[in-house]
Amino acid sequence: DVKVTQSSRYLVKRTGEKVFLECVQDMDHENMFWYRQDPGLGLRLIYFSYDVKMKEKGDIPEGYSVSREKKERFSLILESASTNQTSMYLCASSDPRGGGQETQYFGPGTRLLVL
Amino acid sequence: GENVEQHPSTLSVQEGDSAVIKCTYSDSASNYFPWYKQELGKRPQLIIDIRSNVGEKKDQRIAVTLNKTAKHFSLHITETQPEDSAVYFCAAVAEGYQKVTFGTGTKLQVIP
After folding, report:
1. Which of B42, B44, B96 has its CB closest to that of A100?
2. What's the N-to-C CA distance of chain A in angstroms?
3. How far is CA B1 from the centre of its chain?
4. pLDDT at position A99, please?
């Protein structure tokens, strides 16, 4: 059973702080993703990674960066948090081996409030 | 890039009635269409998917249809139950790409 965990369920930060959100998966998946979820906007892709040290911009990368130093861990970094980054952040992983189209397994989410 | 539109944004049905959620996509290269269900306070989970080489797929009370020519696909839930209440997301994936483009979600409420 795939397990995707995120470092925090709730987080409160102040404007200008550097924020780290961490995601860990235990199924040796190659792909990992960071989304933000906002009411009425669905799931929007921030960044994804298809291998260690590899990253690709998603649809809304501005204000974010990522790090993938190990296969099982994918970190999202808010360099200088702003109030418009208040949101629910969801991590996901998937395994492209075996066809190219694969199920996304999501973490429980981190609800971030930037004051 | 791909753009996925989803309608309606909210849907209320009486228990036992059917519910239909519709999505359209823009990229003709998309060939895999998963649907995710997110219950309140929980993570999204895959409930059904369809690939471009089939037009319909069923799994008990849930079915998905795909019209590649028109670039639209739909989720059908029959005999709805209160536990079907959730937010449903459609998505589209192009072959050879890792990126999944999601719709904006439909909040389904099943009224007992």
Report:
1. B96
2. 37
3. 20
4. 57
Q: Number of residue pairs across A and B with CB atoms under 8 Å?
A: 55
B6 and A42 in contact by Cβ < 8 A? yes
How far apart CA A88 and CA A79 sit, in angstroms, is 17
- What percent of chain B stands above pLDDT 70? 98
* d(C-alpha B33, C-alpha A90), whole Å: 20
pLDDT at A23 over 60: yes
The rounded mean pLDDT for chain B is 94
pLDDT above 70: residue A98: no
Establish if B53 touches chain A: CB-CB under 8 angstroms: no
d(Cα A65, Cα A62) in Å, to the nearest integer?
8
Q: Which of A96-110, B13-27, B60-74, B77-91 has the lowest mean pLDDT?
A: A96-110
Return the residue in B27, B31, B87, B102 with the most chain A beta carbons within 10 A, the one to mutate for interface testing.
B102
C-alpha–C-alpha distance, residues A91 and A74, integer Å: 8
Contact A101/B32, CB-based, under 8 Å? yes
**CA distance linking residue A57 with residue A48, whole number of Å:** 7
Chain B neighbours among A 60-89 (CB < 8 Å)?
none
